[in-house]
């Protein structure tokens, strides 16, 4: 069975959807968060998944090294960034096949405030994208995208919640799509 590591920073509803999918033929070997108070850590523990907290350091390179070493020890075939609000180092993304879920139709609205930026731009629709992580910010090859309409009266919270309803299914589908394409690196 292939091995996956989830990275997440906050609530963790995407991580929960991945953990809960009974048909996902991958072993979630660990969940890593950059925040000790993230609800997602509790979600993982309740599902019997081991957790690691790697908080950002004043020296960014120390953090880069720490997360790379931690993931390396977990020997994943796939890393899944599901609501992880940090940029991974070039070394990291060259070492581990990594996918990310983003709450906008990339290449539109990359970065940490995608939902807010879409509302501010006055577009009628936005969406969600699952993509490979490369050395840029939300620039990697797109795996799957789904559109979500922006409704009159939407605010950042209501729109983000509707996007996440779609995102949860999309990330699970994307994992199932990419897993068979990955060489098992660790038997
Ligand atoms: C998701 O919408 C995900 O796309 C976004 O954080 C949310 C996590 O929700 N990630 C980013 O914006 C990364 N740039 P969750 O904590 O309920 O899983």
UniProtKB/TrEMBL annotation:
Its EC number is 2.1.2.2. GO terms for cellular component: cytosol. Keywords: Purine biosynthesis, Transferase. Pathway: Purine metabolism; IMP biosynthesis via de novo pathway; N(2)-formyl-N(1)-(5-phospho-D-ribosyl)glycinamide from N(1)-(5-phospho-D-ribosyl)glycinamide (10-formyl THF route): step 1/1. Gene3D superfamilies: Formyl transferase, N-terminal domain (3.40.50.170). GO terms for molecular function: phosphoribosylglycinamide formyltransferase activity. Pfam families: Formyl_trans_N. Residues 2-175 form the Formyl transferase N-terminal domain. InterPro entries: Formyl_transf_N (IPR002376), Formyl_transf_N_sf (IPR036477), GART (IPR004607), GART_AS (IPR001555). It catalyses: N(1)-(5-phospho-beta-D-ribosyl)glycinamide + (6R)-10-formyltetrahydrofolate = N(2)-formyl-N(1)-(5-phospho-beta-D-ribosyl)glycinamide + (6S)-5,6,7,8-tetrahydrofolate + H(+). PROSITE patterns: GART. GO terms for biological process: 'de novo' IMP biosynthetic process. Belongs to the GART family. This is phosphoribosylglycinamide formyltransferase 1. It comes from freshwater metagenome.
